[in-house]
Amino acid sequence: MTFEEIIGILAGVLTTVAVLPQIIKAIKTREVEDVSPYMFIILCCGVGLWTVYGILKEDWPIIVTNGISFVLNSIMLYIVIGNKD
Amino acid sequence: MTFEEIIGILAGVLTTVAVLPQIIKAIKTREVEDVSPYMFIILCCGVGLWTVYGILKEDWPIIVTNGISFVLNSIMLYIVIGNKD
């Protein structure tokens, strides 16, 4: 494995799991008033399109990391919208 | 421009600008209690490493999109940490 590949994998793992602390905080506190739903709507569209891009290019690392991101950001979006009046 | 390229550019733009509504909301309301600082710490590390990856591979689209993401997420992290007691 090259140095570039190690950096790329580490970068992909970090950007994919970044939303997890926000999901855990939201579930624990049940408070999401300060969280922008638009951020997660745009993120879901963005990583969803990255997944489509990966499918079109048959690039598995892009499909897997963005597919997981899509699921995690959708969970957070569901929590944010579910807690709005 | 191919269909794949259009999808890729659209995906890159969306994931790059997604944090903007959260920054605007935080500046307007001055409330960030429900926002996880860890999400933005991990995001900054992740997109920072993607920028390094782009530099190593001499891939300008990766450098530009993740460089902008790094700046925007750093601004949000600064707002979140600056508002903590």
TrEMBL record, chains A, B:
Keyword Membrane: yes
Taxonomic superkingdom: Bacteria
GO terms for cellular component: membrane
Any matching Pfam family: MtN3_slv
Residues making up the signal peptide according to the UniProt record: none
GO MF entries: sugar transmembrane transporter activity
Bilayer-spanning residue ranges: 6-24, 36-56, 62-81
InterPro entries registered for this protein in UniProt: SemiSWEET, SWEET_rpt
Keywords carried by this UniProt record: Membrane, Transmembrane, Transmembrane helix
Keyword Transit peptide part of the UniProt annotation: no
Entry protein name: MtN3 and saliva related transmembrane protein
Organism this protein belongs to: Gelidibacter sediminis
